[in-house]
Amino acid sequence: MNVATTRTALQVDDYLDLLNLAVKVGDLKWQKEIKSRLQYILCLQTR
Known about the structure:
The structure is a single chain. Helix 1 runs antiparallel to helix 2. It contains 2 helices and no strands. The protein is mainly α. It has helices spanning 3-25, 28-45.
């Protein structure tokens, strides 16, 4: 695994942790923002 892949994997894990927290506290706006960011990261990976 190269550095960029490792960094992206850490970012995704971090965002998933934040998403779990947002779900637990019931913050729908925050959930939407996190999902949007995850989608952006996915788009960058598929280039």
